Amino acid sequence: MADQSTIDDPKAPLLPLQKPPDNSNYSFKSIFNKNNICILLGPLSCLIIFFFIDLGPGRQSSRNMLAVLAWVFLWWLTGAVPMAVTSMAPLFLFPLFGLAKADEVAKSYMDDIIALVLGSFILALAVEHYNIHRRLALNITSFFCGDPVNPPLLLLGICSTSAFVSMWMHNTPAAMMMIPVATGILQRFPTGEDVHPDVRKFCKGVVLGVIYAVAVGGMSTLTGTGVNLILVGMWESYFPQEKPISFSSWFLFGFPLALLIFFALWAILCLFYCSKGSAKVLSSYLDREHLKRELESLGPMAFAEKMVLAVFGALVLLWMTRKMTNDVPGWGALFDGRVGDGTVSVMMATLLFVIPNKKNEGEKLMDWNKCKKLHWNIILLLGGSFAIADGVRTSGLTDVLSENLKFLEAAPYLAIAPLACLVSGTVTEFTTNNAATSLVVPLLIELAQSMKVHPLLLMIPGAIGAQFAFLLPTSTPSNIVGFTTGHIEIKDMIKTGIPLKIAGIAALSLLMPTLGALVFETSKKV
Predict the structure, then answer these.
(1) Residue 442: which of 233, 222, 170 has the closest Cα?
(2) How distant, in Å, are the alpha carbons of 39, 218, 274, 346 from that of 156?
(3) Does the predicted TM-score (pTM) go above 0.70?
């Protein structure tokens, strides 16, 4: 403790002096490491484009937007800076490069779609907090297990559970919830070099099934993945006078599409990872009684769990019935169209902070401490994606970039969907799904206008294709979640991902000109 004379001395430092660090071991290599080089690549590429690239007269805004895109996408691609921080870059880059005012950019980070995600994340945290996801998984898995074990049926149960969970929350939290459930089942099997090949193959199939099933399940609803939300946001931004894509209208198209791709996934997994003799081998380690015991250990459903399920069910019902058909407009018509899906999402999430959990006096179903695990990085990524989409449109960069996709203009009508899907499906393997959508979909909009076709005929295949990130672990965070289990390798993903991607493109090519044309009224002029 300092004496009084030291405290009274006006020249004494306010904080204790620290010994200067020893920089003798701070080498030149430590400065120019891989991460720092990747950090520098962003602003360096931005400046090179700004000073040395000429896109033609009157296209300075397009050049500036291209420079900003290079910076943001290089940071997104390399992960040199945290994804959430990179997603906030448009907030300072757009005003500095004269692309938009600060207030205009900031509005992209909180709108009805962001509110939809925020409310969904809070509900997902409640589901996770009360172990509802684990109870659901064990119920469905024990139902599908069979006695003796039926590997294809068990695989179907795990995959269908994962897909169902992912329908109502983002792919990454869905994968993070389901992978522990899947690995908990796989812990019953032995590990090591001497393990039976059929066991090893089945373990691979389960992990691949979870990460691919959450991707497929997410396609069926607007809340399942950020890509669908980005698509809806771009549609409303570019064509505000047109009928918006509602939760229910997307579900009418997305669910049948996801169902086709899901059964293709199951068939591929059974073909590669369920051999004829696997049932006998797996029965030695896993049976229905084990799953039932684990389910019994959870005990009966408490009041809190039932209320969370009730809120969840009410939210889904309100989403589905807000906008229905022209003859039956839905309850949203009572509010003259002022209510959005985000309104409902936040309203139902708020109920979780009002309804008591009946465990401890004064406690509610949720409190803000439980919300500290909110995926703010995803929310910021969505905001950044919306800001970039607006910037690409308002700067005229879409006109410049769409000239490189002119080859699609010569494509026949039925080839439009698969080609658009193939373009975005290729880009998404090297960047995030959301980033691929933000880059490709604006280009497809401009291309659709030059081809004189309905924009959604290209926008929807472009957005769906961006979700076909099946080949590399780095393509999407949910792939990384599965890859970290140690059960799968890159060659397993490529082996399974290529036929799955082909099946996805085929399913989309079948449904887009038929069901898609009916649901989204693509025969009408925009």
Answers:
(1) 233
(2) 43, 17, 12, 33
(3) no
